[in-house]
């Protein structure tokens, strides 16, 4: 697949010192795993995904059972991995579910050790939104219970992560993707980790920014790259990568 695309620190679209400083700080936090202010929904399960995507996730996974091997699924921005755990519990050994989150969530012991330092605003650094200690402990316990059901879990950025060189039959990313700082990089990277013939359910609300033309240009770029795209409404799309499409998808180079 080659090296993941790197985010350029100085680009034509970043013209002010403030913007350059903001991006430099973002990349610095990416290296250290310290983030805040993202506000993704940590306890999202499959019913919430179905409502958000306007598409039944389980039905999409069932399409790939005919391959005769476990279906490889990636939950992009999995939070506490509730949706991923529900898929694993429902389908058992017929699926291998992996997840990626923005930061490494602390262990129960780490959280308890720092209990006396915890403040309501501390949740922003760990969960992306304000949480008191008891809410934080509940989310940590939920994550570590669900983590046992995941084939892989990575803490990092969807914009540049290599996912251990793996490819996936199904990729789901909506509740976190719309909070991605550089969402087009995330979309391109996710699509390039689809197996030939695979499908991705994505929310492109962040790209649209309330502007239909921006959304339309992105969908056109996917189709120009060879993907089959179904508009599910509300800036949600189902993207299918044809079996014959083996070259990298380059949305960022699309006009």
UniProtKB/TrEMBL annotation:
Keywords: Methyltransferase, Transferase. InterPro entries: SAM-dependent_MTases_sf (IPR029063). Transmembrane segments: none annotated. One of its GO terms (molecular function) is methyltransferase activity. The keyword Aminoacyl-tRNA synthetase does not apply. SUPFAM superfamilies: S-adenosyl-L-methionine-dependent methyltransferases. This is Methyltransferase domain-containing protein. One of its GO terms (biological process) is methylation.
């Amino acid at each position: 697949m080659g090296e993941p695309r790197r985010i350029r620190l100085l680009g034509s679209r970043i013209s002010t010192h403030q913007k350059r400083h903001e991006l430099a700080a973002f990349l610095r936090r990416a290296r250290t795993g310290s983030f805040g202010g993202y506000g993704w929904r940590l306890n999202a399960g499959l019913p919430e995904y179905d409502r958000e995507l306007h598409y039944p996730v389980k039905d999409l996974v069932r399409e790939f059972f005919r391959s005769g091997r476990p279906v490889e699924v990636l939950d992009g921005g999995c939070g506490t991995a509730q949706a991923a755990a529900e898929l694993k519990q429902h389908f058992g050994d017929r699926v291998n579910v992996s997840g990626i989150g923005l930061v490494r969530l602390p262990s129960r012991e780490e959280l308890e050790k720092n209990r006396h330092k915890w403040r309501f605003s501390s949740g922003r650094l760990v969960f992306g939104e304000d949480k008191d200690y008891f809410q934080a402990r509940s989310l940590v316990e939920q994550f570590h219970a669900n983590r046992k059901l995941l084939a892989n879990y990575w803490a990092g950025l969807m914009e540049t992560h290599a996912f251990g060189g793996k490819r996936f039959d199904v990729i789901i990313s909506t509740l976190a993707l719309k909070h991605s700082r550089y969402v087009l990089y995330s979309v391109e990277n996710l699509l390039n980790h689809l197996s030939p013939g695979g499908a991705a359910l994505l929310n492109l609300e962040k790209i649209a920014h309330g502007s239909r033309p921006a959304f339309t240009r992105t969908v056109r770029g996917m189709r120009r790259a060879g993907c089959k795209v179904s508009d599910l409404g509300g800036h949600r799309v189902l993207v299918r990568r044809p079996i014959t499409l083996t070259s990298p998808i380059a949305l960022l180079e699309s006009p």
